[in-house]
Amino acid sequence: MKTLRSLKRDVTDLQKKNAQLQEDLTHALEAAENVSQPKPGKRGGPSVKQLQTKVDGLRKQVAELERSRQRDKRKISQLRAKEIRKDAEELQDQADFEVGDTAHKMRKLLRRFHDLMLAPSLEGDEDCKICFDKLEPRNSISLTCEHVFCKPCTQKLAPGYEDSVRCPECRREVLKDDLETVDYLASDQWDALLDVAKQWAKMDRRRGEIGTSDEEQQEEFIDDGRETSESSSKPEPEQAESSSPPPVVGKRRLTRRTLERSPSVASSVPGEEEVRQVPEADDADGRISTPPPVESSGSQDAPHTPSYAASPVSVKRRRLEQLAESRNKKRRV
User: Fold this and answer.
1) Helices 313-332 & 186-210 angle (0-180, nearest 10)
2) Where along the chain is composition biased (Acidic residues) (predicted)?
3) Residue pair 318/134 in contact by the 8 Å Cβ criterion
């Protein structure tokens, strides 16, 4: 019985201690809330929750700044690499110009330009006249008559071991060895021509920086039929005495041929053709008289056409377009 009473006392003491602890815990929670939250009507500091929210916002801002920094670093690296490549290309061009054979490279550019001008091309919207399929580069064949067909249809035109092909449009006989594959569209051909022109201009500009008198006397890249003012205004030298002077007829033929070869010069000096065609009379001493120099006053009033090298980019492009258009018209005929 005594043991039971002691157990009950212990339980009662434990209950009292539990109640006291519960009360102390409640007071502690209230004190913590009073510390973190200001009392109504009084100004206090920010709460823990507000501080935590502010810290999270700052962390997000730092992360965004770090991402922006990484993007800027990548962009700077790309710009540096681009600048380095550009400097390397300039140094390579300079080294090629100083070390390599400039004349050989210019000849190669001229051959490339010649091949591009003579190469057949497609307008982009042409169809095969046989199967009516759209013509594609590297799958089309151009005949010597400038008519273009797709490769399968061209192969069917001459089956077996025949050596020639008959054009379905103009009925002209064309050897198989003369068939040519069309590799360019008109736009691609134009881009390739512009690329050649840029390379030539780059080399010509570098040659101009080094320039010598011999290089200045060389022919222009494109002969536009004009003669220098020095050659047009320079009087003809007197011919030496001869017992049998050349016949006048031959000289007249040579003059006509020269005028036909350079129509721009003939048109720039009015009356020159009539003066040159008049047979020259012999002097009393047996010397061949030279024609009087043509007055240059009329040539000053004539419009001055700049050479191809001195023309602006728009004029050069228009001349190349005219050449391409004339070739396309010739191929259409």
Assistant:
1) 140
2) 212-222
3) no
Residue/partner pairs of 186-190 with CB below 8 Å, 24 or more apart? 186/121, 186/122, 186/123, 186/124, 186/324, 186/328, 187/124, 188/121, 188/137, 189/116, 189/119, 189/121, 189/324, 190/320, 190/324
Strand (E) or helix (H) holding 260:
helix 248-261
C-alpha closest to that of 332 among 203, 146, 162, 119: 146
SS3 of residue 174 by DSSP:
strand
Q: What would the two tokens of residue 152 be?
A: 């399968």
Residue 298 has pLDDT above 80, yes or no: no
CB atoms within 10 A of CB 128: 20
Task: Show Cβ contacts of residue 265 under 8 Å, excluding neighbours closer than 6 positions.
Answer: 225, 226, 227, 232, 259, 272
Pair 186, 121: CB distance under 8 Å: yes
Beta-sheet pairing, 164-166 with 184-185: unpaired
Q: Which of 294, 259, 265 is nearest to 277 (CA)?
A: 259
Locate the domains of the chain by residue range.
52-100
pLDDT value for 283: 44
Write out pLDDT tens, residues 60-77. Answer: 888 888 898 899 989 999
Residue 196 has a pLDDT of 86
pLDDT at 265: 39
Structure tokens at 43: 């100004």
Task: Decide if 167 contacts 156 (C-beta within 8 A).
Answer: no
Note the pLDDT of residue 246.
Answer: 47
